[in-house]
Design a protein that fits this description.
This is Cytochrome c biogenesis protein. The chain is an alpha+beta fold. It is built from 8 helices and 14 strands. Helices cover about 35% and strands about 30% of the residues.
Length: about 325
Amino acid sequence: MKIKSQKNAMWLFFSSVKLSVFLLFTLALVSVFGTIIAQGQSIEYYKSTFGHLWGTVIPLIGMDDTYHSFWYRLLMGLLSLNIIVCSIDRLFATWSIIFPKTHTVKANRFRNKPDRQIFNARSTMTQLRDPIRLFLSKKWTHFELFSTDTGFYCYGETGRKSRLGVYAVHVSILLMITGGIIGSFFGFDGYIQISEGESTNYLVIGQNQKIELPFTIQCDDFSVSYYDNGTPSEFKSILTLKRDNKTFFTRPILVNHPLRYEGINIFQSSYGLLTPEYRQKLPETVVLFFQNPKTRLSYPVKGKLNERVPLPEGKGFLPFKIIRHPIALVVIIWGRH
């Protein structure tokens, strides 16, 4: 009896709706902290941002990598178990309602309802039976008419299978949680910084860990469009994926429009200034061609960087100076959506 009581207590605990609310609230709260707190930073960063105490606690409890932490996976596992037990616990009662073997109707249940209606008919019971059957059978999906010693009564209902909708919701939640757990174990997310014309075949996870990709990503072009007030409205990169020095396709990527290939999602997260390494590769001498729109004459203008060169036809001077050069900052995520 003691073992049975313990089993019942455990079953009641995991079939509790209060447990579902608690787990959902906890996961939502933790996800908020995981979004607010920068992930994958050094302990020095957390100490300088949150102070010595919390800067030490955050990496200690795994908040620096929230979605891969043991306790976050445990919360998702407990929520999955809670949903499964709740579904099983209520399935048999729901099934008996959707597919009843017999219908039991108590007349007093309807006589005592405040919205009941009573009317007198001049027709006999036999004359009323068929018209009522025909009318109500069109209104209700499940309709039956039963005879009694004093007359007859009708039983009907609609939307019976809609009670299965909650199980469809439960299955969809379990699929999302399963995908999240699989992604937390086998997935990864990191970033790479690629300048225009450059390519790479690895990404950086956390601070220094590098993962080699099964292909090479090359940034062919980058462009930014602006609103009238000067703020960026859209930035786009043209990426080429290569393998064994062979190009297999070229695609543009925009913010919230990633490139997906072999389970790897390539997102464009931001852009920034030209890196010092790329600056060193720029030529010292630049040649630009100017064309007069009226005469259609073209003029080559040759000059060195950081110098002012005269424009054709005495139109002034042009400084050859690299102020900023955009780069694509790409985030690679595998096993997540």
